[in-house]
Write a structure and sequence with these properties.
single chain; 126 residues; Proto-oncogene - Oncogene Product P14tcl1; 8-stranded antiparallel beta barrel; globular
Length: 126
């Protein structure tokens, strides 16, 4: 028996608006929840004269599109560091309300759940 292929997903959402910590709504009224945050180790420059930007922490967020019901906010305290709005930007990226860019690492579907993985780019990557 052949494995059932997931139906193709369309384009990623144009905008994601903050609803509650870790919960967003897109332009179609669909609910997206931050289900996982991954903190990537920073590559700090050696020496005391290193600019502040070298101390940035990489951040990857996994968002799942859930049925149109408002879920409880995730318990992860880091979701408060996410932007209040993401807007689709050219080049498979989103721009947050803080002007930071987030690269779309993956946009797909697992079983019946659409998912979106975004990685925050270092400041100055415009």
């Amino acid at each position: 028996m052949e494995a059932e292929a997931s139906p193709p997903v369309g384009s990623p959402p144009c905008c994601l608006w903050f609803q509650s910590p870790g919960v967003y709504k897109d332009e179609k009224g669909r609910i997206w929840v931050a289900v996982a945050l991954q903190i990537n180790p920073s590559h700090r420059a050696r020496g005391s004269e290193a600019p502040e930007s070298t101390h940035e922490v990489g951040l990857t967020v996994h968002l799942w599109q859930l049925p149109n019901q408002m879920p409880r906010s995730p318990s992860c305290p880091l979701v408060s560091g996410l932007p209040t709005k993401w807007e689709l930007y050219p080049g498979r990226r989103y721009q947050g309300t803080d002007s930071r860019l987030w690269e779309i690492m993956d946009h797909g579907q697992v079983i019946s759940t659409e998912n979106l993985i975004l990685k925050r780019l270092p400041s100055g990557n415009h």
